[in-house]
Amino acid sequence: MSTHQVRAARLRDFLAQDPHNPDLACDLADALFAFGEVIAARDVLDSLPQDVALAPGVRFRLARCALATGEYADAASIHAAMLQEGLDGVALRHDLAFAQLCMQHADEAMRTLSAAFDAFGATPELLILKSRIALMQADFALAVSSADEALAMRPGDPVALGVKALAQFDGSEQDASAYTARTALEIDPYQHEALLVAATLCLWQQDVDTAQPLFERALERHPNSGRALSGYGQLLMLRNELPRAGEVLAHASRTMSNHIGTWHALAWCQLLMGRIDDAEASYRSAHEVDRNFGDTHGGLALIAALRGQYDEADLSIRRALRLDPNAATARYAQALLMEARGDAAGSEAQIAKLLPQTGLFASMPVSEFAHRLKSTLTSGNR
Q: TM segments (predicted)?
């Protein structure tokens, strides 16, 4: 039995003898939570007598369990109720802002965080959260500077380094992000954001053997990480493990329902499996997120081309290229139309121009992708 298990067992015995002691309940929940036993921690808290369950420390830990299991609205509700009752603290404000961020209410989260700074001053935890919120707001300079402030207060903090790496990555500072991610992973091999950066950079280089264990390590502790799931699904596509890739990408799309790139990745996977109707549904979901995204209209052109609806495909291609002259899916659709209309040389020439450098299409070899699409087109899967 490990030291952790011994301590948890001892605390369970103490709590059984003194079930109305909220401090014991909180200590046991903390011990379980620290080793990832979130459900066990919540079971302990849920089984407490009602008078103990109302203790501020118990409620705070129930909210933390809700955060850990993705029940963000429940967590925010507990935090807000405690604040309304006059209970306050830097950890409470932090967790409320974090719950709001997880619900993608970035502006609200930043307001909560600003109030925490006003009331309690800067802490590394608050500054790291500020960096995360700035990331969601696409303010990459603020995200990096906030992480740097946290690192000035706590040098070598792996979480601050990981969040900084992701901010650099999303801000297109790839070399800097790679260095920062490596630094973070040398300190904590499981640091989530650093793993995302390192794995995605390897994926873009089509180094799937290096990328795969990095994504898997990220998902080991964060199984609902949308970005890790999306990247891992694309990696499985490269390995031609299409059914499994489809399952992973579907999970990613549920986790990040407003992320267009994940819907596109799922659609490509479905196309390669000949599931044209499902691919169209994925592109329609992407269209609901942003109706003016060129690659989505290009994807709908692909669907039309695969169904032999060439006039409709032409219309969607023109719409896509008006919105984005470089829309890769529209260019793929053009190549398919050329092939379908007997212009094999023109199709190959068009495909040869499609050599994207970043993002989803960088992780899929153009020649292989084109070959798979052509096979789908000629296989009779409509």
A: none
